[in-house]
Amino acid sequence: MQQSKAERTRAMIIERSAALFNVKGFAGTSLNDILVATGLKKGGVYGHFNSKQDIAVEVFNYAYAELEKALVAAVAKHENSLEKLKAILSFYQNYSSQPTIEGGCPILNFSMEVDDTNPELRKHLLWAVNRLLKSLTRIIQNGQELNEINQAVNAEQFAVLMYAQIEGGIMLSKLEGNDQKLQLVLNLLSNQIEQQLPL
């Protein structure tokens, strides 16, 4: 179905603002930055959004959808649950240098600024994190049902551990300006998957 001009303009604003918010953050991204990136005038942006807050929420949803789409594609190539988990690790191998959106992980970047002053954006971040955790948990539980993964493994706990370690590795790598810590975390996680999960 073909998008209307208004829908195309709205999508363009979101896509071109994604890198701005992901690199500069919510506080660091000005309306002028958005106007320069989109080539629109103030009325052209605010004809589609009520506020910078509204743009930020849509930008996060877009950035998360791009991340999820890439992760789903990486996992879909594999049948075995252990291989699916390793595919997630492989996806993140080059994530520091080749993120789905310029600036790195949108969940990590947006969560650094979200506190009690931005409850709407926080709600969207929590939804995204919970969705990722449920997906990881489901992969492990499916593996247990198919006798690929040890029944003694607590699927929810391992999913939290895996996700927290990956995000921590991304954060340390971003801070240091290289991917050494992320690679270390991914290697350790790979060893954990090989040693703790199989039957």
Automatic annotation (TrEMBL):
Keywords: DNA-binding, Transcription, Transcription regulation. It comes from the Bacteria. Pfam families: TetR_C_13, TetR_N. Residues 30-49 bind DNA. One of its GO terms (molecular function) is DNA binding. Residues 7-67 form the HTH tetR-type domain. This is TetR/AcrR family transcriptional regulator. It comes from Solitalea longa.
